[in-house]
Amino acid sequence: MIYKFIFHCPFTIDQEFKLNNQNFFTTIYHLRLTFYYLHFVLLDDSKRSQMKIGILREGKTPPDKRVALSPAQCVQVQEQYPELELVVQPSPIRRFIDAEYLTLGVNMQENLSDCDVIIGVKEVPKKDLIPNKTYFYFSHTIKEQPYNRGLLLKMIDLNIRMIDYETLTNANGKRLIGFGRYAGIVGCYNGFLTYGKRTGAYTLKEANLCDDRKEMESEFSKIKLPAIKIIVTGSGRVGNGVLEVINGIGVKEVSKEDFLNKEFDQAVFVHLNTLDYNTRIDGAEDSKPDFYANPKEYRSDFMKYARLSEFFIAGHYYSADSPYLFTREDTKSADFKIRTVADVSCDIDGPVASTVRPSTIADPIYGYNPLTESEDDFTKPGVIAVMAVDNLPCELPKDASEDFGQELIKHILPCLLGDDTDGVISRATICENGKLTKYYQYLNKYVEGIC
User: Which of 29, 131, 151, 245 has the maximum number of C-beta atoms within 10 A of its C-beta?
Assistant: First the structure.
């Protein structure tokens, strides 16, 4: 009301100068000048101080072709947040080449030191970190990974605010962003590629040699399966990605009861959840809350499925103290029939005994000999063919990046650029102001080198 009166008072500034010997008009004149100052000067300062985001070039070795936002998504973000300035660091290896960004009018910038927020995918090399910035990427530090302790120390020393994608969750603790879906998609495809190579039944083009997911899916028609039974575990992002592919291939899903008790004249799969292959040692009633609270009270019941299947796609989440799905001793049993393992979860020397190391995109398959408990030629009879690539989404960097960018735009940017009422950003902030945040005090011993 006051604002409207001052700016619509029926006198121009010249008239006010002539009448400024009258107190009323003098007051109006000075108030209007004040509002002009606030409106033009302070507003301009506000514009100059709006957030600037830099999209990082991946610097980790081996090279990673993914990016947090595709060219089209950068345009979408700029249209959705017109006050935001967004720049992309040039890259010679990114799946989306620089020209694709420039063609859509996205600015490229080599030096990101004037950015407020820097967004990448994998760990940033210590030498490339810029002091006093906010970073988003997968730091791989929250589980006290020894190989990245120095990275966390460096970020603390440089007064960096580190926000880890892995810790971005909603109020119920559910993760909001990740590459798990594409790990499942590529991992499942690689599993069928491995089965084909082990048996000689067919040959598929490797996913990383495909231009995109569409080309990879065009290979499905080459898959020729006998009447085998396939086990799938996992119900999260990874598990759902696995299901997208196995359903796309056209393998029939059957119930647990039918899988265990019936024979089929075509390839079938069963989708298992945690309590399908874990049971209480004392025979008491089990439940997921009880399993998560008391994993040591459970034992694996996976062998009843392993004696019927020769192909296992592992997309489950494994937590400490949970029973192993199968052990090295289990693989020696004559009842253990599995000879192809696509271990998307890739927990080394853990719940899937045949996974003794990660494999690589360039060399995705190795053999595990149950009798010698060592690597062997995966085409030999009795040897288990293992696919355990630990960076599967990198094989389809275009599609994986677009999927990730959609989640970033939908779930994360509104919290970063708007009101973070649920504390999404603060819960995911590992360090800031030169120290660990309250949520990550458990990392103190890790930082200090005690553990």
Answer: 245
Mean pLDDT across 292-299: 93
Q: Where are the domains of the chain?
A: 2-48, 52-177+398-448, 180-390
Topology of the domain comprising 52-177+398-448: Rossmann fold (3.40.50)
Q: Rounded distance, CA 347 to CA 4, Å?
A: 66
Would you say 182 and 156 are in contact if contact means Cβ atoms under 8 Å apart? no
Task: Return the exposure string of 327-348: e unless at least 16 CB atoms fall within 10 Å of the residue's CB, then b.
Answer: beebbeeeebbbbbbbbbbbbe
Sort residue 232 into left (φ over 0), alpha (ψ -120 to 50) or beta.
Answer: beta
Nearest CA to 142 out of 415, 429, 449, 435 is that of: 429
Query: At the fourth CATH level, which superfamily is domain 180-390?
Result: NAD(P)-binding Rossmann-like Domain (3.40.50.720)
Residue 425's identity, in one-letter code, is: I
Structure tokens, 282? 């004392």
Instruction: For tokens 């590529």, name the residue.
Output: 186
Residue 221 DSSP code:
G
**Residues 6 or more apart whose Cβ sits within 8 Å of residue 298:** 278, 279, 280, 281, 286, 291, 322, 323
Among the listed residues 222, 203, 226, the one whose alpha carbon sits nearest the alpha carbon of residue 310: 226
The partner residues of 341 in beta bridges, in order of sequence, read 312, 386
Query: Helices in 49-145 by DSSP H: which ranges?
Result: 71-80, 98-103
Is there a shared CATH topology between the 52-177+398-448 domain and the 180-390 domain?
yes
Q: pLDDT category, 451, cuts 50, 70, 90?
A: low
Each residue's pLDDT tens digit, 14-72: 333 333 444 544 444 344 434 433 333 343 444 334 899 999 999 998 889 999 999 99
Report the candidate in 57, 322, 327, 342 with the shortest Cα–Cα distance to residue 197: 342
Pull the structure tokens for residue 443: 């990392």
Residues 6+ apart with CB under 8 A from 140: 123, 147, 148
pLDDT at 301 over 50: yes
Backbone dihedral region of 86: left (phi > 0), alpha (psi from -120 to 50 degrees) or beta? beta
